[in-house]
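call fold(seq) -> tokens
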Amino acid sequence: MKFVILTGMSGAGKSTAIKMMEDIGFFCVDNLPIALLEKFVELSELQQNPELQKVAIGIDIRSGQALSELREVLDKIRGKGAAYEILFLDAEDSVLVKRYKETRRNHPLAGGERVDKGIAAERKRLLFLKERADYIIDTSRLLTRELKAELDKIFVQNQDYKNLFITVLSFGFKYGIPADSDLVFDVRFLPNPYYVEGLRARTGNDSEIREYVLQYREAHIFLEKLIDLLNFLIPNYITEGKNQLVISIGCTGGKHRSVTLANELYQRLSGRKEYGLKIEHRDIGKDALRGK
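ret:
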């Protein structure tokens, strides 16, 4: 029997994840009273019903004061030899605040105060679950289909899963540095295709721009040194417990040089099992004719 406790921050996507778990064959129970959890596990293990061979239980801050009892209940369950895994969905505070504002919902712990106060209180109450989690998925930058892919990777394909998810992000300095960047690299030292006849309207996704940028020895040296730096940093980030890393590469308009080098970096980081990986080009479509 596979038993998963699905938990995490309000607004991080637990309701969506529960539906996805059902789609991949889990029997799901959301917001089960904590007082019933131990008995539910015992009964599920005794049943020979094939529908109960994969079970996911949603538990979160809605449990109220009973949440403080969960640590002891989990210890009892494990002490009786029942195996379980904890999946914790998280997101950055700024993203959670934005999601609450968009849905016009009140945070369950905010009371009459601002949403960020409720989020801070929730983090404190759920910290013990995050520390015990087998899987932590940060949904701050994940699309719905990307969350589904991560769940499939863990619970369908049974792949080794690491909690670090890396986003390679190209951007234009003229539109501002991405606020959620962890590492920012400026590639404006390279010649700009914007000033070359016939290349201005192209982007780093086009072969003409890629060839132009990569003809320079400096571009290759930059990539080699960047990969060397990341080969050192990434294992240390994983050890430290970091679960979201945004590597931002910027040029003037976010259309030519940064896109090309972000694509190259993405290719060089692909295929590794230590982390999840995606690429975004934030400003590639902005100011198509005037962007640099």
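The chain has a mean pLDDT of 89.
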